[in-house]
Structures are given as structure tokens and as C-alpha cells.
């Protein structure tokens, strides 16, 4: 089905770890819903039990045909559609999914860094001194209305990456760790 994929792993432990790390990750503005398959995939059966692959595939196809219209979710959707058609032919209202943003930690690299959790009294000069130890610093921008965030721009992505990796979780005031991610484009 569209919007679905099956991923096989060498072991159940690796699969559990992957499921834990990726569940809910936004993909095309929707959080991924991940679960273990109820049956073995064709690829797994072909690899582990090639002699019974044809039987497995035939059983799967027959089950798919038999459950196509008995699936409770599909039955509920079909009833809604039929009810909407009887009420003047209007289509069933669709619910808009909330737009889920990608977490900052997974944003693609670029030349602008986004700093969070800065001390309230941090100055532009302090940030310039901290980041100027890395090559190609272009500009530091403080946000007047939000004292705990700032942007630091480098001339190229590689320089920004080096500075980000070196200073992420740096304690500027000795207490709070600075969170550094790539800025959203």
C-alpha cells in the first residue's frame, strides 16, 4: 500500500532499537507510525525458507483477498463514505493532520547555527570571542526580544559544522549548556 514500507533486520534486538529510535520521526510532515509485522515478509521467507516461498506467497495473496472488505478499518471508512453520499453526495469531511516539524537535531547542515539556552546576560562580544576561535566566522546575531537565543553564521557549511560539534553543550556561564543546532532554512 502507498505510504507503507517493510524493513527487515538481522535480529529482533536491532529491530527493537531501530523502532525505538525512529518511531514518531516526522517524514513529510507526518510522524512515522512503526510496528512489527504480523507475519514474515516475502523477502524474509525467501531468504530463510526458500523451499516454502511459493506456498507462503499463495497463502498471503488468498488472505489479502479474503480480508480486503472485512477489515474493520476499511469497513468503517466505507460506511462513512456511503453515509456521506446519501446525505446529498458530499464527500466525507477529512481531518487535517497536524504539521509535525522535524526535530532540530536532525536538520540538514548549513552555514547558520541556531543557539539556544544562552544565559540572559550574554553579549554579542562574548559570542564573537567564543566562535571566532573557529575559521570563517561571518556574523553573530542576537535576538533583542529573546535573550536566550542567537544565530551564528559562517562563510561555509564545513566551518559551521566544526564549530557546532566543538561547542554543543558548552557551558558559557559555568551552569547551563548551550544547545547548538543548524538553523532552519
UniProtKB/TrEMBL annotation:
Keyword Metal-binding appears in the UniProt entry: no
PROSITE patterns reported in the protein's UniProt record: RRM (PS50102)
Domain RRM residues, every copy: 1-39, 111-185
Pfam assignment, any one: RRM_1
Key words of the record: RNA-binding
GO molecular function: RNA binding
Keyword hit for Cell wall biogenesis/degradation: no
PANTHER family: U1 SMALL NUCLEAR RIBONUCLEOPROTEIN A/U2 SMALL NUCLEAR RIBONUCLEOPROTEIN B (PTHR10501)
Protein name (record): RRM domain-containing protein
Species assigned in the record: Trametes cubensis
Amino acid at each position: 500500500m502507498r505510504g507503507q514500507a517493510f524493513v527487515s533486520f538481522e535480529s529482533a534486538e536491532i529491530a527493537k532499537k531501530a523502532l525505538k529510535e525512529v518511531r514518531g520521526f516526522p517524514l513529510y510532515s507526518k510522524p512515522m507510525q512503526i510496528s512489527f509485522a504480523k507475519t514474515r515478509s516475502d523477502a524474509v521467507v525467501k531468504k530463510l525458507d526458500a523451499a516454502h516461498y511459493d506456498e507462503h506467497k499463495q497463502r498471503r495473496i488468498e488472505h489479502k483477498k479474503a480480508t480486503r472488505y472485512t477489515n474493520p478499518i476499511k469497513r468503517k471508512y466505507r460506511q462513512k463514505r456511503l453515509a456521506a453520499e446519501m446525505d446529498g453526495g458530499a464527500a466525507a469531511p477529512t481531518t487535517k493532520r497536524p504539521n509535525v516539524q522535524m526535530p532540530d537535531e536532525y536538520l540538514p547542515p548549513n552555514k547558520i547555527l541556531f543557539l539556544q539556552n544562552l544565559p540572559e546576560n550574554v553579549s554579542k562580544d562574548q559570542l564573537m570571542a567564543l566562535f571566532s576561535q573557529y575559521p570563517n566566522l561571518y556574523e553573530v546575531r542576537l535576538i533583542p526580544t529573546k535573550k536566550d537565543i542567537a544565530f551564528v553564521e559562517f562563510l561555509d557549511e564545513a566551518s559551521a559544522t566544526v564549530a557546532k560539534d566543538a561547542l554543543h553543550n558548552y557551558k558559557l556561564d559555568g551552569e547551563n549548556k548551550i544547545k547548538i543546532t543548524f538553523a532552519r532554512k
